[in-house]
Amino acid sequence: MAGRWAAKESFVKALGLGIFGVPLSQLCVIRSCSGGTPQWSFGPDIQAVLDQRGISHVFLSLSHEAEFVVAISVIEIIP
Predict the structure, then answer these.
(1) pLDDT in tens, 51-75
(2) pLDDT tens digit string along 16-48?
(3) Where are the alpha helices (DSSP H) in the chain?
(4) Which CA distances in Å does 42 have to 16, 48, 51, 63?
(5) Alpha-carbon torsion 26, 44, 38, 6, what sign?
(6) How many Å apart are CA 40 and CA 56, to the nearest integer?
(7) Phi and psi of 44, rounded to 5°?
(8) In a 10 Å sphere around its CB, with 0-12 CB exposed, 13-18 middle and 19+ buried, how is residue 32 labelled?
């Protein structure tokens, strides 16, 4: 649970909107079928923001260690 919250926080910070700048219910962390790596699934409102900004992909990394969790989101913009 903490990892998913950290992931959402890393996304909104990378986007530069703040924690209440996007509907958090439209941000979902899923595991890929190949290797189980975490990936984003976006609702239509968030996808519209990404399209408007020319963001082609958002990479996600999650790491857990005992009671600590860290998440990093990297936004890729292709001109």
Answers:
(1) 999 999 999 999 988 889 999 999 9
(2) 887 778 888 999 999 877 777 899 999 999 999
(3) 2-15, 44-52
(4) 17, 9, 12, 21
(5) negative
(6) 12
(7) -65, -35
(8) exposed
The residue whose two tokens read 């996808």 is 47
Q: Are 55 and 66 spatial neighbours (Cβ–Cβ below 8 Å)? A: no
Phi-psi region of 54 (alpha: psi -120 to 50; beta: other; left: phi over 0): left
What token pair was written down for 38?
């975490």
For residue 46, what are its two tokens?
């968030």
DSSP designation for 66: T
pTM of the model: 0.84
